[in-house]
Amino acid sequence: METKIIHRPERNRFETVKDGYTAYVEYNISDNELNILHTIVPDEISGQGIASRLVKETYEYARKHSLKPVATCSYAVAWLEKHKDYKS
After folding, report:
1. How many whole angstroms separate alpha carbon 27 and alpha carbon 36?
2. Which InterPro entries does the entry mention (predicted)?
3. N or C: which end of the chain has fewer CB within 10 A?
4. Is residue 1 part of a domain?
């Protein structure tokens, strides 16, 4: 069963809890851009595609709100390179 991703706009993050561990993406919005600052997945739940799902959900939010997806986080930079359709 896939874990649910929750948007917490008051904390500028998307998060999910799996097996009692919280994974999340932190972002900021400025100048019509949504910038992913950090992607955090605890070691105990890593390697399950959680980071990719969190980044995708965050950039889907950007699309829905006409924000340009950008990345400071190295994981998000690599994700955008693999998913070039999100860069336009």
Report:
1. 4
2. Acyl_CoA_acyltransferase (IPR016181), Gcn5-rel_NAT (IPR045057), GNAT_YJDJ (IPR031165)
3. N
4. no
- The whole-angstrom separation of Cα 85 and Cα 13 is 22
* CATH value at residue 46: 3.40.630.30
DSSP secondary structure string, 45-83?
A: GTTSSHHHHHHHHHHHHHHHTT-EEEESSHHHHHHHHH-
Say what the pTM is: 0.94
Q: Please state the separation of Cα 31 from the chain's center in Å.
A: 19
* Per-residue model confidence as pLDDT tens digits over 21-80: 999 999 999 999 999 999 999 999 999 999 999 999 999 999 999 999 999 999 999 999
